[in-house]
Amino acid sequence: xxxxxxxxxxxxxxxxxxxxxxxxxMGTALTAASAAGVAGVWQxxxxxxxxxxxxxxxxxxxxxxxxxTLGALRxxxxxxxxxxxxAEISPxxxxxxxxxxxxxxxxxxxxxxxxxxxYRGVLISETMAGSPSAVCWQIGAGWLRNYTEIPRAxxxxxxxxxxxxxxxxxxxxxxxxxxTHATESYEGYDSEYYDTxxxxxxxxxxxNMVAVGNVIEEELRKAGIGVVxxxxxxxxxxxxxxxxxxxxxxxxxxAQYPDIQxxxxxxxxxxxxxxxxxxxxxxEIDGExxxxxxxxxxxxxxxxxxxxxxxxxxxVTNLLESRYPTLxxxxxxxxxxxxxxxxxxxxxxxxxxxxxxxEEALTSARLTGQALGEWLQELAGNA
Length: 383
Fold this sequence. Notes:
Layout: H1 16-26, H2 28-31, H3 47-62, H4 70-76, E1 120-126, E2 136-139, E3 142-146, H5 152-159, E4 173-178, E5 193-195, H6 209-222, E6 226-229, H7 242-256, E7 262-269, E8 272-274, E9 277-285, E10 288-291, E11 293-298, H8 306-323, E12 331-334, E13 346-353, H9 358-379
Parallel strand pairs: 1-9, 3-12, 4-6, 4-7, 7-13, 11-12
Antiparallel strand pairs: 1-5, 2-3, 8-9, 9-10, 11-13
């Protein structure tokens, strides 16, 4: 098994409009320089030795992470175009060579099929929450977990600044929904076991992240919010370059709809405790099973004004957790980019993990869409 190398970034700063203008004007030329996901170079060591020691340390520490998630670890290992490594790891998939197979999964049925013992893995359901530590603290009703070297004082100072989000909520397009990794999908059955041969990827937009995005789009439209939903599968047929391809589309949307205030890149996480155990971040809201949501925010130097994206992530997490306690997991603040350099107000949302069912993710999407619609109307002064 081969894992890509990490890039550790420093912090830069610029305003929302400056970042957006730069992205639009420089266009595709900058796309190749943008991170394909999360970037990394293990500095100061020979490549082969660096890869070995870094990957060993990271994998050994994965089980001890507060959320026990290789999905979060995977984000730190996604390469940039400047890296010698070309493979890109999808959110939610522990990726090895060759690229994971895409299989169109069947809809959830009441009874899961029998799984041969040699292919039977264990599926654990957990309600994940934050707990106070040096790298994890409460912000409003939600929590933030800091995986960067940025000190807490600087993060808190950024969070204390006012949010630039200023929607009109008058029908103009102000929200972009898209999916850098649209083919990510879910477990087909609500069970204590799973088939280890499952890839949790599907090109069927009724089964993957596009279906989750459709629900949020519908709820926003009901609330009178102008929204555009990009349903392209940037990760198919190849994961390599999916963030680059998504960046081209985002720039086109920003040019076509200059009033876009909020960009939602919707994914699902991948949480694997060991080779045969996966974890479902789950809760129950008003009696309905729901997938927990984690918002991911990057601080790569190329992001520029990462503070505005983090403030947006904090505001949305606080909104959801205030209305629906236990619906969110702590914000994952990392060193990655995730195309967040293209515009302020960009957040990456993880709806559950590969262990959740599509129905659980759709419930969370409905609640999220309703809350966002009302919130945007309030910000516009229409509530």
